[in-house]
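Exercise 7 asks you to align residues with tokens for two separate proteins.
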Amino acid sequence: MPESSLSSSELDPRRRRALTRAWRRGLREMDVLMGGFADAHLPALSDADLADFEELLEVQDRVALSWLTGEATPPPQYQTPLFARLKAFHTHARPIHS
């Protein structure tokens, strides 16, 4: 099972919760996508970006995965600069489910 490479010891409680939630999604693919992004960017996220990330963490795995793979378009409320960064963070040449 994948796990975080980021130590949560120096993160504030809000970021620690987000890191845990990003790595414990339910679908392994989402653990890798959300958790990997959290490891790389969570400490430096602005409060506004952190709020957007927390909102994405509330979305069901299969729905968020369809947005990240481009199979579906997220509703406008999720089309944020943070979502664009998350999607661009995970580039792939073909669908990740094939």
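Second protein for Exercise 7:
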Amino acid sequence: MITLLEGFPDNVVAVRAEGQVTAQDYDKVLIPAVETALTRSKRLRFYYEIGPGFTGMDLGAMLKDIGVGFGHLGQWERIAVVTDIDWIKHATQLFGFLLPSKTDVFGIAQAADAKAWIGDENPN
């Protein structure tokens, strides 16, 4: 399940993933949030918190994830992945170079640092 998180700047799409993430989560929550944010800003930032209760994504969700990521490829400015799940941390670090945006990985205990980084207006 994906839920929207509040308290972020208008150019930040912030979500938390718990349990099983489905294509329906993308259709009902994430994609509309991205499209709404794009009406406010041409460049977006993505805060993605993956909690300890995350059990995975179905195939439809994986395909939607690729579609959202690459469909707006030039519009992502920063991506913060916040998780304590090792394989997600390693995969993000391994494949982050494929994205034209700055991408960083934080542990759950560093969520406040991730929020500060994703909202920081300093481009460096």
